[in-house]
Amino acid sequence: MRRIYLFTFFFVCCVATALAQEPQYEYVPLVREGVKWVYMREYMGYDCVDKSFPFPLPYVEVLEIKGEQPVDEVEYKQVMSNRSQEPVALIREDGKQVFIKASDDYIEYYLDYDKNTGEYLIYDFNKEGAGYENFAGFWHFNEKMIEIGGVMRKAYFREGTSAPEIIEGIGVVYDHSPFYHPYASQPDDGTIYGLTHMMENDEIVYKTDSFNHYEYYKARDYSIYFGDVNADSHHNVADVSAYFELLMQDIARDVNGDGQVNVGDISALYNVILAQ
User: Which letter does DSSP use for residue 225 in this model?
Assistant: First the structure.
């Protein structure tokens, strides 16, 4: 009998240890500080080898939840971009629902819009597919658990695909879907704008299929980080000088988004430098 008790005790301890070592499910809020979403904007058809191709190099935009801003006694987190000194959006989460204040131009891309508050509901993680199940052209999703950052999270996969479309704590991860960036769909200027990876406490915790593009340019020391024109990993007046050189060669990028590449982009470049 003593042997039976010892065996049972040993078995229970082994099971408990194994369970303790396995990642446990934990809902991870999307709205939290210390996380960064890295997007790359690429020009379709750009040839990485043929430098005579008339389009400029891709650039990376980093979005980060950083700092707070109250609006009408409601506390929002700021969504900051490495392109600007001002927040590109205000965001908050309540009861697994994520709301933002952004441009009115993109109402059709989000779950709901409250005219009284000016808020968009962009995720409802209480529902299948974070609320996008069969919504406005979205597909049916299959729910699975995946491990990210040492915890299990719910992820939603489109039928017949191997990569998730939406993940708790991250949001939409494929190219043309709404996130909390004001650009709710693909740009119409011949570029592709997509998430490459997500960072938490400056460590990469998730990569999309586009991450290999990011690695390609980084490995060749291209100036893909927005504002780092000379690719020295710093934002300073040396980048302005480098931009003038590119401007003379007609290969500089449109920094201020006005559809033209000219000296007006220099002021925008200074804003990027000051925002770092």
Answer: B
Burial bucket for residue 224 (CB in 10 Å: 0-12, 13-18, 19+): buried
Torsions phi, psi for 11 (to 5 deg): -65, -45
Q: What is the pLDDT of residues 248-268, one digit of tens each?
A: 766 666 666 666 777 777 777
How far apart are alpha carbons 71 and 179 in whole angstroms? Answer: 21
107: Cβ–Cβ under 8 A, 6 or more apart, which residues? 113, 120
Question: pLDDT per residue over 67-113, tens digit each?
Answer: 999 998 899 999 888 877 788 889 999 999 999 887 655 556 678 88
Q: Whole-prediction pTM value? A: 0.73
Query: Do 183 and 192 form a contact (C-beta atoms < 8 A)?
Result: no
Distance, in Å, from the CA atom of 29 to the CA atom of 14, rounded to the nearest integer, reads 32
